[in-house]
Amino acid sequence: MQIHSSIPELRTALPAGDRIAFVPTMGNLHAGHIALMTQARQHATRVVASIFVNRLQFGPNDDFDRYPRTLQADCEKLAAAGVDLLFAPSECELYPEPQQYHVDPPEIQHQLDGAFRPGHFRGVATVVLKLFNIVQPQVALFGKKDYQQLMVLRNMTRQMALPIEIVGGETVRAEDGLALSSRNAYLSPAERAEAPRLHRLLTEIRTAVRAGERNFVEIENAAASELDRHGWKTDYVAVRRQSDLQPPESGQDEPLVVLAASRLGKARLIDNVEIDASGGH
What we know:
By secondary structure, the chain is an alpha/beta fold. It has helices spanning 7-13, 31-41, 71-80, 91-94, 113-116, 120-135, 147-159, 189-194, 197-210, 216-229, and strands at 2-4, 20-25, 46-51, 85-87, 139-143, 165-169, 233-241, 256-264, 267-275. The radius of gyration is 19 Å and the shape is globular. The protein starts with a strand and ends in a 6-residue tail after the last strand.
């Protein structure tokens, strides 16, 4: 696997004519990331990954400084997964001057996760567009665990007429259902034992919706209260349309997703479960 930290070196290393699948990450890689790398191979002849902890998407109370940085271990995992090239720029390489031009997503950036992380999706969209311009892939892969992020980036790509296919990778979970996340490392042993409750509640909501329950506000409030009774501090539990993450309309049978974000100790965990229009997965 080639490793490059400068933009000119990276561009020189990417032969013209190759079909490129790109997987941007912030590092501290786990099995969920590696599943995306493996999936990327199905879409292209060359797989490119990036590792960059993007300051623009962190708020003043977020964990930018303590976000785990494990480059050597990450490189070993990527090489073992068959990644062809890693782009690992420094902050001054990607932002040689203050970033004054930004991608400003629509109102959805201020809802759900965006309501609790102001500027987050603006920072994500800006760095991803910049990385797309550097790597120029034909395909880019993002995990469904960050469901709102996936939707923002898919819509950005479409509206900016970028010649890139956005592929969502299924969430990879531990045996007890907990979605794999770099931030799971913040959990104490007792918190790690409690953490699967989040996914259990989301699957219970899916079961209730399949059975015909449509009082979504009541369902959301009950789930948030259940989490908080067990020591969580819940930001939201929300049933939304998959298409635009807006509240479902009464009487409409359409694909839904239930999303949640809640803090357990020092870890802020997010998860989601899709519900198709007929009540299946």
